[in-house]
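Researcher: Here's the sequence for the chain we discussed earlier.
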Amino acid sequence: MIIALIDNGSLEAAAHLRLRALASALSDQTGASVHALSWKHSDRVPAASLDGKPGETLAPFVRRHAAAGERAFLFVPFFISPQGAIGSALRRDLELLQTETGGFDFNFTTGLSDSGALATIIAERVREVSPATTPNAPVVLVDHGGPSSASAGLRDRLAAEAAALLSRPVHPCSMEGEHPPLLADLLSAPDFANRDVIVAQLFLSPGRHAGPGGDIEEICRASPARCHRTALVGDHPRAAAILSAAIQRALSSTIH
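Model: Thanks. This is the structure I predict for it:
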């Protein structure tokens, strides 16, 4: 069985290097070989920026292993939620590859959103930043945003759960997309402008959105609020522990 930690992919080297580091940690924790794999994009990152090893994307990866006789794949989703538009498109691509290669079996482990621990991670990230802010600084939880109502629903639910853990309001918003409020608008509102604001980043990797100089940083810099951004959800030690346990459960189920 081929096991791969899979993300959406990024043109930023830092995002794929982070994916590799997490895959290596999962390999150590589970005793199984876990590949770092992107759905798209990462094969376009110059290999020189990836320690000389090109990034791998889904279709060539599956074709290569299927040609070598592999017929079972276990994918570990490194997404905030695998139930949105990306998850559906990823499954469609795998089904097309099944037909193209003559057939193989694939399954997904549970992901971070299935664990019930994302709100705990968000709350811990907020607490890390809180000492640098004024008392009662507003907290906003920002995700990427997009067309999926399921993703927006998860965003709102996680904000409510984190608020309960923190005993303070957490205001959900998105960087962009069709489900307001948007981060730029929220930071300009009277309750947030000219104040310390904790921006909890519901992002996994330091790509062009949540990485240094990325979209979230630019939005914060351009806003009238004094923004204090949290570290990313995907860098938290709990994320590796959650995914490691998911792999072990899936392998145990396969064995039995």
